[in-house]
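User: Sequence in, structure out. Go.
Assistant: Echoing your sequence, followed by the structure tokens.
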Amino acid sequence: MAVATQSAMFTGFSRPAQVAAAGKCSTAIKLSFFGAHLSSLTAKCRLNLIIKGADKRTFSVRNTRVAVKIQSTGQETDGRKREEVLRVALICGGPSAERGISLNSARSVLDHIQAEDLSVSCYYIDCQLNAYAISSAQMYSNTPADFDFKLDSLAQGFKSLSEFMEHLAVSADIVFPLIHGKFGEDGSIQELMEKAGIPFVGTGSREARLAFDKYNASMLLKYHKYVTLPSFLVQGIDTEKNELSKWFAYNGLDMNSGKVVVKPARAGSSIGVDIAFGVNDALIKANNLITEGVDDRIIIETFVGGGKEFTAIVLDVGSGSNSSPVTLLPTEVELQFYGGSDATESEEIFSYRRKYLPTQQVAYHNPPRFSVDVIDHIRKGAVMIFHCLGLRDFARIDGWFLPSSDSSSADLPNEDTKLFGKLKSGTIIFSDINLISGMEQTSFLFQQAAQVGLSHACILRTIIRRACTRFPKLYSYAEQACSSERFRLSRLHENRPDPRRKVFVLFGGETSERQVSLMSGTNVWLNLQACSDLDVSPFLLSPTTTNSSLQHHEQREQNVESKMVWALPYSLVLRHTVEEVVGACREAIEPERAEMTSSMRDQVISDLREHISSSNWFSGFDISFETPEILTLEKWIIRAREVGATVFIAVHGGIGEDGTLQSMLETSKVPYTGPGVSASRICMDKVATSLALNDLSNSGVLTISKVVQSREELLASSTSDLWHSLMSMLDAPTLCIKPTGDGCSTGVARLCCKEDLEKYVLVLQEKLPHILPNTLSKVHGMIMMPDPPAEKFIFETFIETDDILVVSKHGGSTQSGLLWNGVNRWVEVTVGVMGTKGEMHSFNPSITVKEDGDILSLEEKFQGGTGINLTPPPTSIIREEALHACKNRIEILANALGLEGFSRIDAFVHVDTGEVLVIEVNTVPGMTPSTVLIHQALAEDPPMYPRQFFRTVTDLALLRSKQN
């Protein structure tokens, strides 16, 4: 495939570059600057892609509103005729608080469905229900707020939803709506598409409207003889207290202390869900939700005590108008509490934060740790609900299992034992129906699909094909696509030598950054998997013990080679935390549990095969079932050397970033990604980094003065004396404290007075997992502490930056733009660098706007749907000349540190001079789906998409290995 020289035509925001062969990726993605050892990278500041594919075609991409032109020879290399292309429109956003998660879901779907027989276009609905056609590059934004304020200039807007529907009717063959919550799951957008005659994935408008309202759905389930929780509907703030009191009395609840759940009838992701005690508290919290505009229908229901929460994906594998739903293996959701058995009110809710941010406050078990009988009844009940509510294609159904010993504590009335859900072992209660389940990379949909042999791409394309069978004009596509996919799978399973180059992706570890590392490694693994000339395997560096921080540093150094690595099957990667992955691996090799899982998996697969036996649109299962394997780090490196693998390091902090792992791999002559041993060691130590850059002040590269204190010194010192000493040494009005070797904003706080220092030291002394919002004198969000606790801490001058406020008429403002007073003239940026040693290229920096406090939170840095990134920096803040000077200085310091491959540099930049005040250098930067590095790569000319970005990093590692 050659890069076309002509400009590409605007054809409605189809995905560029990766359209060419993104999913298939017999595209061995390489960079043209390899031949010149990347010299053109710095000179031209341009990445020219050469993509070699199995078929001949040309394309061009420009970083404008989207430009794509594809030409095809019309023949596959094996002689088969090319299939027709299905035009799929993805719609995300919406007016609900879940619009950030909607963007994440759409990004994930975009990544996994792209192939030669699918052309994808992207659309966004803002808070005021204005519709826009957006570039696929915008799908990799951290949050809709990244581009909300510039939609009018960035995207193609539609005058009305009617005009939008007219556009879809001619531009798309089928629509995949991915709007969570209101407008997306309540039947609104479905009704618009039905009236316009537009085929779409998912449940119809009337059925969606009923299922979305939790109260109405519960009443329908009760009518169909399901066990349901007693509930009371609050409609409007004038609800009579007397009526609620009667409901409390009828259900045996104490008027003053009866424990209930208060939640909106029409919202998702646990938004607005709270616990109340007594009639007055329940009414106050219900009325608050109404006045805040969350919903005007609020449910008050009895609290389920002692129950075990579960969620189950139902997949319809019927054809046409015939529905044949099958429930996959459910997942148990285990809430875990800090501080013993007494949980706070907020800890008893499967909250928005627990759902979408890696945290040890929740663990998933797939399949659940229930009896086979209970799981069978959950699967059967979910199918019956799918039928009785008239759902289509797929859904997620949540519920509770109350063991018999706990059933009485759930305040359930003496229901008829013939109700569905009543078992000898306990009670099953179905509570929520989700028509558009979250589709982030490790979501329940993908987790449960992988457990029965369906990859991300396979389950999504199965859902789309199933929807196509309902529409006569699209049925032929479903059959064609199935035939092509079966051919591809048959070629994969042929018994012949595997010519693919092996890549080992390593993530996890035992630092406080291990959960972000899991997200990074999973993202890298899934992206590189799409390259057909690569054989990519995921591996987890297992934490040693939960008390590893208590081990002596030298002892850990000596034991590094005996650290354990898990070789992971596909399904076991898709977990929430490192600890959860390890737990799932141990379960998988425990004979009794493994036998139970295998038996239940076989049953689900049998059910799927039975229902699809008469269909000709299902391509089959594409994941083999393997047992996880554990081996020492030393033996893992030997294996990598023996099979000629390149190691993609995604272990943040610890041995993954301090040069230890790099040294071991280098000694064994195993290619690895990122900087070498020396640069890694220097950059891991923030003090050493500053010392290495001291001589660059004349070049405009500055460092911040630092004072280092050990944890023991902090605990033993008088905080008052220490504070005054620090004030004297650093000559600063306020300080910033941070661990010496941790990243991800872990343990980073602003200290404005000795009382702040006292509170911080108290947290260290009591080994608390976090500092609650606004504990310190300056407003701040949740501060996660290092786990395991850090051994040393840095105090440095806190640099005052100017607040940047993003305003958007799409968010309720009368105008769109940025508000910035520019008093201090310093802004905080993060910038990626890529290239070979001595010739590093700087991407455009990103300004990340802090939403809550002075320090970027873990969520704002790495979690999609949170934080606001401005990439590249607006010229209204940093002038072009200053930006150019900034990038030059970033390259100077990157080359001075000996960086190579890729890294991320955090710094303050002076908006007038472009001077750089270095904060830290990350040699293994975050590589999550919404990482700022991807935003910056997409801002290059031409844009570099995630798959190309990670492939480039991998190829740079091999290039260095060959040169050495």
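User: And one key feature?
Assistant: The longest helix spans residues 591-612.
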